[in-house]
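G., before I forget:
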Amino acid sequence: MISAATRRRLRRHAAGYAFTGPALLVLGAFLLYPIGYSLWLSLHEWDGYAPQWGPFVGLENYRALAADEVFWRAAWNSILFVVVRTPLEVSLGFLLALLLNRKLALRSLLRTFFFVPVVMSLIVVTIIFQRVFEPNAGLLNTFLRVVGLGDWTRPWLGDPATALPAVIAVSVWKNVGFSLVILLAGLQGLPPDVLEAARVDGANAWQLTMRVITPLMRPILALTALLSIIGGLKVFDLVFIMTRGGPTYSTEVLATMLYREAFELNHMGIASAVAVILVALVLTIARAQTLVLDDAPEAGRT
Amino acid sequence: MSQTGLSRRKLLELGILSAVASPAAIRAGRAAAQTGGTGGVQPTAPTKGPAGELKNPVEFKGPRTKASAPTTISFWQYVGFHVDVQKFIAEEYKKRHDPNLTLEITAFPGLNEQRVGVKSALAAQSSTPDIIAVEPGAYAVDVYTSGSVIDFTKVFAEDPEYKRGFWPNALELLTINGAVVSVPAVTNTVIVYYNKGLFRQHGLEVPNTLDELKKIGATLNAKGIMPIAYPAGQDRNFPIFPYYTYLGGTRADKLMREADLGLKPWTGPELVAGAEFVEMLAKSGLYAKGPLGIKEPDAIQIFATGKSAMFWGGQWMRRSIRAALPPGFDLAIFPFPAVVPGGPKPVLSSVGITLTVNARSKHPDLAFEMIKALTGAWGKIEYTRNLGLSPNGPISGEAIAYQMQSLKDPLYPEFLKLQPTGTTRVIFTPAVEEAVTQGMQALIIGQKTPKAVMESVEAASQKVGPRKFRAG
């Protein structure tokens, strides 16, 4: 029997439930349920073909991953991908945003120019860069030879030492425009009176940028970094198309390993375990970032 | 003179010359593969020939079973450029034999996407698709050993002539636990394309032995021309080509099959010798720099612009290569030279798209009839006439002449000669295939020794444990 107080509370929140209900339903069906399903599947064996899952194996799939050097390689590469890509993407995006926030000739054109890679099809981008990195007639090696740096030529995507940096470089090129747009929007939303006050107080451009603009932009910078980190951790398509994780696993990341285990090796349980670890990583980082932001002094309070 | 630019007589000659229907012709084909290259010239610009000057010489036989009411059967495949010809044959089948039957084709963007889709459908016990395209090797093993598809035992028992229409070496690649799991629509070979003009210009002859190939490589390198464009970075199959080539050339491919099935060790001397060959080739200076960083389009560009004199690749790339060549480029092919003195010239052969029937299909008999239409005697001629790939089995000289009316590429009959000589290039155990791919990559970049590579393949093989299937 529902008490009168509960009924009153329900009535009071009915509109709220009605509005959020569909969204919660979608969230549950397409996000929470698959996560739970993956978690449960990661404790089983399954080849992906049989209608029924295989036996319950507990944490065996996780143990197998812990003993698999390819997993550690993929995990390390994923982390490296984020650690290198995010600072580059955010700092370059911020620099460009600062530049394009000034009154420049052709400013609109330049903004569009830097945003073009973001809207370009990834397939097109990878095809272009495969040609750029091709060892014999590729643009990069040809350029190096022309300027007398022939010793620096490499089979960029075919050498384990350079394949991952090459893929990261493409990723930064493709995504820096996205950071630029978010940060530019942030810059344009800064309170002009604060900036004006700083200028009146005699702050030069460097001081204004470092001591006023950057602290004010901190939440936006953190958001951009968070998006970049999450994007970096779950990167799949770029790596898969450019190198398929090779050569010799030198560009294997968690998402490509997940794919390989699931659809090439038919280890759905192990693939699910990789997925669970990936989700846990993303959630942990997102939560950590939120905590850092919550603890940060309110933006603009200097 | 026909309007196609090739006389009727010439067409028939081409067809008859490359007829591989009889055992004698097969032997002739083998002999051709043993003796040097086969050439060709750039085909004339396509012109619309008078349709019907020559007709498909084979009767389009009717089915044993027909649909009693309007029925649509679904077909999921992964090669977009096959769709038009498949539709054409299905339409003809509908028009001539079964007006109630419609084929609905879903062409996924690629094998990976199709495999994911098929896997999901089979796991969900879906009756769709009725017809599934599968790759030989691990994919075929997966769908068959999980009980997801129906083999061709009954179909072949009812129609032995249909079975005889396939190359035995092609069906062997699709035989799991003694049953043929799927049937090929086309077959393919891997050969060396070469720039005949460049060879002529530098006084080079088609190599018959590995030593001759190495000498050609040294000559070309000295003149600043890369010998072979080899796109080892294309996919996980390409890095294994040299290994398959060596095993074919030393007749150790059967041994590889046994090792694949866990019956023999990968660390045996014959199989380690294959890895040593891969390493030797990588260090020989025969390849364009950094093969693992080269994909098919890049390699084609290198070859088409004369930066390399040879291109190691598949028959399926013939059209892409043709499209990239400048006018006057004299394109020809030769099988890879003998890798050991007196050994055969290894031609890697495989099947293209292969078709099978979903075990949960609501219309399995109709699905089999449709597959027979697509891959049977009449269908195979139409199929390959449209695509320029090799048929799944022998066809008559007359049929080839009919095909040449529209194909107009003198290389086509040359490929047909090579198919019956082909050696396998398929690994059935997924984990072993993965280990071999990674191992060959490591050899190409000099990261591991041949022995270490084969030990890692053997470790992967042992980890799989006893196989639950037999193949071949």
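Chain A has one domain: 69-295. Chain A touches chain B through 33 residues (CB under 8 Å).

More on Monday.
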